[in-house]
Amino acid sequence: MPVKTFAHAVFLASAGRSAEFPPEGPPEIAFLGRSNVGKSSAINVLAGRKRLAFASKTPGRTQTVNFYGLGEFGRLVDLPGYGYARVPHAERAKWERLVTGYLLERRTLAGVVIVMDARHPLTPQDERLLEWLAPLAVRRLALLTKADKLSRIEGTRVLSQTRRTVADALLFSSLDRQGVEPARDRLAQWLLEARSGSRK
After folding, report:
1. How many CB atoms are closer than 10 A to CB 1?
2. Helix (H) or strand (E) segment spanning residue 44
3. Is the residue at 200 inside a domain?
4. Is the pLDDT of residue 71 over 90?
5. Could you give the 3-state DSSP secondary structure of residue 29?
6. Which of 5, 124, 173, 187 sits 20 to 30 Å CA-CA off 32?
7. CATH number, domain containing residue 186
C-alpha cells in the first residue's frame, strides 16, 4: 500500500503566500528542515521519482510552499528551508510568515517530518523549531538524511542522540535508500489514521 500510494504523487501547486494555498482536502504531511538538508530529495525518493520535487545544491532554492498530491489518500508539502544566512532578512521574514501561517492554520495537517543532516543534527535552529512545534497536536518524525556518509557506529550514536529529543527518528539516505521503506510505512499510517479521524 505505501509504495503504490507514493508512486502516484503529482505536483499540485506552488504558493508564495497563504492565499495561494490549494483548498484543504485530504490530510497533509509537511516537510521542514534547514536549507540544503535534503527535503526535496527525501520527497523524491519516497515517491520513487527523480524530479517530482526540485532538488538543488544551492541553499535557499525552495522559496515557496510546494504541494504534491497522492490522490484522495493525502498530500506531501515541501516547506521553505530555514537558517540560510545569505538570504536577505526581509526574504527570510517572508518565508517565516509563510511557514508559520501554514503550520498554524492548515486544519488538514496530519504530521510534520523534520529533516536534519545526520552529520549535523539538532543544530540550535533545529532545536528552536522543535520547541516551536511542541504545542502543535501533530505527529513528528525526524529523518536524518545523508546517513550513507556515516559509519554504522556513528549512525547508531546519532540516532540514539536524536531520539532523546524526537522519539520517532530514522536514519535516511536518498542514495542507498536506507530508511526509505520504514519512512513510507510511517507516513502512510499517519495518512490512514488522519483519514479515519484518529489523531493519537
Report:
1. 11
2. helix 39-47
3. no
4. no
5. strand
6. 5
7. 3.40.50.300
How far is residue 74 from each of residues 9, 27, 30, 67, measured CA to CA in Å? Answer: 9, 5, 11, 10
Name the residue type at position 169: A
HSE-up of residue 184 (Cα within 13 Å, Cβ side): 21
CA distance 115 to 20: 25
Question: Whole-angstrom Cα distance, residue 158 to residue 153?
Answer: 9
In a domain, 46, yes or no: yes
pTM of the predicted structure, to 2 decimals = 0.89
Residue 48 placed within a domain = yes
Cβ contact 67:22 at 8 Å: yes
* CA distance linking residue 84 with residue 139, whole number of Å: 26
Task: Please write the tens of the pLDDT for every residue from 102-139.
Answer: 998 999 999 999 999 999 999 998 998 898 888 888 89
Q: Computed from CA positions of residues 182, 170, 44, 140, in that sequence, does the dihedral angle turn out positive or negative?
A: positive
Q: What is the mean pLDDT of the chain?
A: 86
Indicate if the pLDDT at residue 30 is higher than 50: yes
Dist CA 40 CA 66 (whole Å): 10
Q: Please name the residue that has the C-alpha cell 520535487.
A: 53
Domain that holds residue 178: 2-195
33 and 142 Cβ atoms separated by less than 8 Å: no
Instruction: Take residue 162 and report the three cell numbers written for it.
Output: 536524536
pLDDT at 200 over 80: no
Pairing label, strands 109-117, 139-145 = parallel
